[in-house]
């Protein structure tokens, strides 16, 4: 059973930076698509950024130019570098990954989430 474990959340001042990490097990190579989502209080969970195994990245408009999604295969880790953080970036950030198993079909996994709090 694949697992995702996020870390790196915390308190950040508006305008500051924070980097989130998501460690994939047993290996990041089994996922063809990984992404970061966030959920703010009273709001629906939204896609923030995604990255294919071919390194194609996509971002929601509100974070373009400020956030960068990347992966380090040697460390089995997906990252979300957050710069010029805004109060509206606050929420619980979740790592998500898609796997296709030939005998079973598509599988989707979520991490447990990491809290990002922004002080203004």
SSE inventory with pairings:
Layout: E1 3-7, E2 10-13, E3 18-25, E4 31-39, E5 46-52, E6 57-59, E7 67-72, E8 77-82, E9 91-101, E10 105-110, E11 114-119
Brief rundown of the structure:
The protein has 120 residues and is mainly β. 0% of the residues lie in helices and 59% in strands.
Largest sheet: 7 strands, mixed
Q: Would you identify the regions where 5 or more consecutive residues have pLDDT less than 50?
A: none
What global shape is seen? elongated
Q: Proportion of β residues?
A: over 45%
User: What structural category arises from helix and sheet content?
Assistant: mainly beta
Helix count from the secondary structure assignment: 0
Helical amount among residues, as a percent range?
under 10%
| SSE sequence, one letter per element | EEEEEEEEEEE
| Strand segment count | 11
| Radius of gyration computed on alpha carbons | 14 Å
Mean pLDDT: 96
Amino- and carboxy-terminal Cα gap:
40 Å
3D structure, described in words:
- A hairpin with a 6-residue loop joins strand 4 and strand 5 (46-52).
- The chain has 120 residues and is an all-beta fold.
- The chain is built from no helices and eleven strands.
- Helices cover 0% and strands 59% of the residues.
- The strands form two sheets. Strands 2, 4, 5, 6, 9, 10 and 11 form a seven-stranded mixed β-sheet that branches. It has a four-stranded antiparallel β-sheet with strand order 1-3-8-7, with no helix packed on it.
- It has strands at 3-7, 10-13, 18-25, 31-39, 46-52, 57-59, 67-72, 77-82, 91-101, 105-110, 114-119.
- The mean pLDDT is 96.
């Amino acid at each position: 059973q694949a697992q995702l474990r996020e870390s790196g959340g915390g308190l950040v001042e508006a305008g500051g930076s924070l980097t989130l990490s998501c460690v994939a097990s047993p290996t990041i190579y089994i996922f063809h698509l990984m992404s970061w989502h966030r959920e703010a209080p009273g709001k629906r969970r939204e896609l923030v950024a995604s990255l294919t195994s071919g390194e194609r990245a996509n971002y929601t408009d509100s974070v373009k130019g400020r956030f960068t999604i990347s992966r380090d295969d040697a460390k089995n880790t997906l990252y979300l570098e957050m710069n010029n953080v805004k109060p509206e970036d606050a929420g619980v950030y979740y790592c998500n990954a898609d796997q296709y198993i030939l005998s079973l079909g598509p599988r989707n996994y979520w991490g447990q989430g990491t809290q990002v709090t922004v002080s203004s």
